[in-house]
UniProtKB/TrEMBL annotation:
<keyword id="KW-0547">Nucleotide-binding</keyword>
<comment type="similarity">
    <text>Belongs to the CbbQ/NirQ/NorQ/GpvN family.</text>
</comment>
<feature type="domain" description="CbbQ/NirQ/NorQ C-terminal">
    <location>
        <begin position="175"/>
        <end position="258"/>
    </location>
</feature>
<keyword id="KW-0067">ATP-binding</keyword>
<dbReference type="Pfam" id="PF07728">
    <property type="entry name" value="AAA_5"/>
</dbReference>
<dbReference type="GO" id="GO:0016887">
    <property type="term" value="F:ATP hydrolysis activity"/>
</dbReference>
<dbReference type="InterPro" id="IPR027417">
    <property type="entry name" value="P-loop_NTPase"/>
</dbReference>
<dbReference type="InterPro" id="IPR013615">
    <property type="entry name" value="CbbQ_C"/>
</dbReference>
<protein>
    <submittedName>
        <fullName>ATPase AAA</fullName>
    </submittedName>
</protein>
<dbReference type="InterPro" id="IPR050764">
    <property type="entry name" value="CbbQ/NirQ/NorQ/GpvN"/>
</dbReference>
<dbReference type="InterPro" id="IPR011704">
    <property type="entry name" value="ATPase_dyneun-rel_AAA"/>
</dbReference>
<dbReference type="Pfam" id="PF08406">
    <property type="entry name" value="CbbQ_C"/>
</dbReference>
<dbReference type="GO" id="GO:0005524">
    <property type="term" value="F:ATP binding"/>
</dbReference>
<feature type="domain" description="ATPase dynein-related AAA">
    <location>
        <begin position="28"/>
        <end position="162"/>
    </location>
</feature>
Length: 260
């Protein structure tokens, strides 16, 4: 029964080996790379392989250490403590995935500090307690190194606390396999979608904030597979999400109409 639910993940390098050894050695892991390149899917897959629970937190500018560690809430006449997801993961030995960790408030980085070195402990300041991490607790964070694009940076002193793996757009053959496996789209359309993806990725002069991710190509494949005309599928799933600039939209649509 279990195997039916294994998330589909196509390896692109040695990431599985690195993950397994990081887990075995209780080292925190940083997944670097642009959005939509399979980081979250990889974590889901690895959690399955290692038979561990995964707790995901999508970090944003309001994410604070309180959100992660826990808080007191008022229940009737009493004040009770509620563990946050980080505390739960530390106690239960789950994999905690901090998606886009650099976006979180700086106190989040401070909170995870003692969990990322030999101490492997969490200090809960509101309780005045320090808890030792469960044997199997693992901290994984993702980070989008999109320097000039308005993404936040991660300090070198923080980065150096993690073992890191780079994610990028997969090579053409692998990417079209992903599209086929993920959506059942026909192989000719998959190939063409990957060609479009790579053409747009190479157009660095357009200055797009984010370029075509595998996620966008997966979306286009789904639309094609469900019967939407191919060009319309690409326009809607790939081109429109990229930009609002009318001229750029036209240029990208022309480019894709030459391919599909
Ligand atoms: P990220 O976390 O890097 O933003 P995701 O893991 O959410 O990206 O990937 C976006 C989508 O792209 C996934 O839902 C999946 O359909 C597809 N995908 C990307 N890379 C892979 C891969 N290596 N194997 C399987 N699916 C992938």
């Amino acid at each position: 029964m279990e195997t039916l639910n294994i998330p589909f993940y196509h390896a692109v390098g040695k990431e599985q080996e690195v993950f397994e050894h990081a887990f075995k050695n209780k080292l925190p892991l940083l997944l670097k790379g642009p959005t939509g390149t399979g980081k979250s899917r990889f974590i889901e897959y690895m959690a399955h392989v290692l038979n561990k629970k995964i707790i995901t937190i999508s970090c944003h500018e309001e994410t604070s250490s309180t959100d992660l560690i826990g808080r007191f809430i008022i229940k009737g006449a009493e004040t009770v403590w509620i563990d946050g997801p980080l505390t739960t993961a530390v106690k239960e030995g789950a994999i905690l995935y901090l998606d886009e960790v650099a976006e979180a408030r700086p106190d989040v980085i401070v909170a995870i500090h003692s969990l990322t070195d030999h101490r492997r402990e969490l200090f809960i300041d509101k309780l005045g307690e320090t808890i030792k991490a469960h044997e199997d607790f693992m901290l994984v964070a993702s980070f989008n190194p999109g320097y000039q694009r308005g993404f936040k940076e991660l300090k070198p002193s923080t980065r150096q606390r993690f073992v890191a793996i780079s994610f990028d757009y997969p090579e053409a053959k692998i990417e079209s396999e992903i599209l086929i496996k993920e959506t059942n789209v026909d192989s000719e359309s998959a190939k063409r979608l990957v060609v479009i993806g790579n053409k747009i990725r190479n157009l660095t002069e357009l200055g797009l904030t984010e370029t075509v991710s595998t996620r966008l190509l997966v979306d286009a494949s789904k639309l094609i597979h469900s019967g939407l005309p191919k060009r319309l599928s690409v326009h809607a799933a790939v081109i429109e999400p990229l930009t609002d600039d009318q001229q750029t939209l036209e240029a990208l649509k022309d480019l894709c109409d030459l391919v599909i």
